[in-house]
Amino acid sequence: MSPSIVAVRQRYTGGVRRGLDLRLVITGGLLLVAMTVAVVVWLTRGTEPPSSGGLQASSMKAYDVQHVALDVRILPAKRSIEGACDTRVRVSEPLKTYVCGLDDRLHVTDARIDGRGATFRQHGGLVLVPLAKRWHPAESHSIHLRYRGRPRVAARPPWDSGFVWARTPKGHQPWIGVTCEEDGGDVWWPCKDDPGDEPDTGMDIALTVPSGLVGLSNGRPLGSTDNGDGTTTSRWRVSYPINNYDVTVNVGPYRPIEERYHGVDGTLDVPILFWALPEHLEKARRLWTEAPGILEVLGRRFGEYPFLRDKYWAVEAPYLGMEHQTLIAYGSRFADNRYGFDWILLHETAHEWWGNKVTAANFADLWLHEGFATYAEALYVNDTQGVDRYLEYMQRLAVQVTNRQPIVPGGAASSREAYTRDIYTKGACVLHTLRWLLGDEAFFEILHDFPNDPRFAYRSVTTGDFTSFVDTRFKGDLSWFWERYLHRAALPEWDLERHPAAGGERAVLSWNDPAFQLPLPVRVGGRAVRLQMSGGRGEVFIPHGAKLSVDPDGWILARAAGDPS
Question: What span, in angstroms and rounded, lies between the C-alpha atoms of 275 and 389?
Answer without folding.
Answer: 32
